[in-house]
Design a protein that fits this description.
The chain contains 13 helices and four strands. By secondary structure, the chain is of the alpha+beta class. It has a four-stranded antiparallel β-sheet with strand order 3-2-1-4. β1 and β2 form a beta hairpin.
């Protein structure tokens, strides 16, 4: 058998060229939806239609198809991130984790989060300040707990320390901690080791031992003892 016939399947395979035809372009107020004969539909920013010279009936080669798909992923990633942010402010790492679950590529996620940060939508320092004010506004909360919770949200230590320093007057609110401790002590009537329990209560709230002992000293000076 001639060699070319033996190689025919491979030759035919190499001659196969990927092509996808644009069947329709539908415009909405927010984006353009591109329907392909592959059964896929890509959502793009409206200006991307002109940028990629997309028209109905255009046949896309493999490179054009992948460019279109990547641009669609980029647009979808940004829209999902903005929708996630609309519910409440988020740290950069929270947004990354959310987008990972949506199966976007690492490059597009990084590009999206960086773009949102440059536009002011994401700011870990401002997020930390708001988080601290929210937590301390609800109940007496110490620095140790705030550090732990902010670090768990992916905030860098330097950013956490800066935000804590800025919010020091809110965190080290002795009067608020004292009121919480007094209320806890009185709720433990007829219980043993009430002071020790109050110490543990304040420790769980994130206060250090020096601060806690000052609060307990005030309780004792007011006649509240085991």
């Amino acid at each position: 058998m001639p060699q070319w016939k033996k190689d025919a399947p491979g030759i035919l395979f190499c001659l196969k060229v990927f092509m996808a035809e644009i069947l329709n372009i539908h415009y909405t107020l927010s984006h353009a939806a591109i329907s392909l004969d592959t059964g896929e539909e890509f959502e793009l920013p409206v200006d991307a239609v002109g940028q990629f010279r997309l028209i109905r009936g255009k046949v896309l080669d493999k490179e054009e198809y992948h460019q279109l798909r990547e641009e669609s992923d980029r647009y979808s990633c940004r829209q999902k991130a903005l929708s996630y942010l609309a519910l409440r402010s988020r740290s950069a790492e929270e947004i990354r984790n959310y987008l990972r679950k949506k199966h976007f590529s690492a490059d597009i996620i990084d590009e999206t989060v960086n773009a949102l940060a440059n536009s002011g939508y994401v700011n870990d320092y401002e997020f930390s300040l708001k988080f601290i004010r929210y937590k301390t506004g609800r109940k007496a909360t110490g620095q140790n707990l705030l550090k732990k919770e902010l670090y768990a949200k992916g905030i860098e230590k330097s950013v956490i320390n800066r935000a804590l320093k800025e919010s020091l007057s809110d965190i080290d609110d002795f009067e608020k901690a004292y009121i919480a401790a007094r209320k806890k002590f009185l709720s433990l009537a007829n219980k043993k080791n009430r002071m020790r329990r109050v110490y543990g209560f304040l420790h769980q709230r994130g206060f250090d031992s020096g601060f806690i002992n000052k609060v307990l000293d005030r309780l004792k000076n007011e006649g509240l003892r085991d």
